[in-house]
Amino acid sequence: MQVQLRHNPAFTVARCMLGGGEPLRVEGGAMIAHSAGVVLEAKAQGGILAGLKRSVLGGGSFFVTTYTAPPQGGWVDVAGVLPGDLVSIDVTPELPFFLRQGSWIANSTGVEIDTQWGGMANLFGGEGGFGFRASGTGQALVSIYGAVDIIDLEPGEVVTIDTGHVVAYALNVRFQMRRAVQGRSIQSMKSGEGWVFDFTGPGRVLLQSRNPEAFAHWVAQSVPSETPREGLGGLGGGGGIGSFFN
Prior knowledge:
It is built from five helices and 19 strands. With 246 residues, the chain is α+β, with helices and mostly antiparallel strands. It has helices spanning 48-57, 120-127, 185-191, 212-222, 240-245; strands spanning 2-6, 13-18, 23-27, 31-34, 39-43, 64-68, 74-78, 86-91, 97-99, 104-108, 111-117, 130-136, 138-143, 148-153, 158-162, 166-170, 174-179, 195-200, 203-208. 17% of the residues lie in helices and 42% in strands.
């Protein structure tokens, strides 16, 4: 598989160029378009239990769609839900990656995507605890909210990253989670930075320039959950503006 990126970095679309008979696994809803002759098959990859783990724990879809190119080859366009970049991660047997919830959108044949417990650090850091483990040999495509930053850590090198900005990391990287202001919960809240990860190299860490949890919090506070009907009769029937947002 060869990946061609366009419309990046704000609204990136990945065109996955496939050889004859080559399959591509895609997260449900991530496909935009595909060339003629590509065959689709949707199923709970790994069985019903794996599908439930993927949807309930990993934040993905129950069904994974496999797109198989015809003998002459073909292409499939995929994109993430949030605006931003896409990155192709090279996965090898010696270097699997952990992917945060909602970031995986596609992978080439030879790569296995399994739901994995990311540890208590991910749970309390707002990442939901579970994510995906990309292992095997090939490429895994992940979506980025905003622009991507890639940090390649030298042995012993440490970087501190806000939990909401971490997209993926090689599983040979060591990390711990802590309050942004060590040992001081009130100071951490005052700073606006609750929890951070300390990653220690060697290894690769992928960041996103925007925080989806912060955006969701902003939307929740900015959009009224209920709007009084008085004075809104001219805007349409039902609940007016409140019904539109609800």
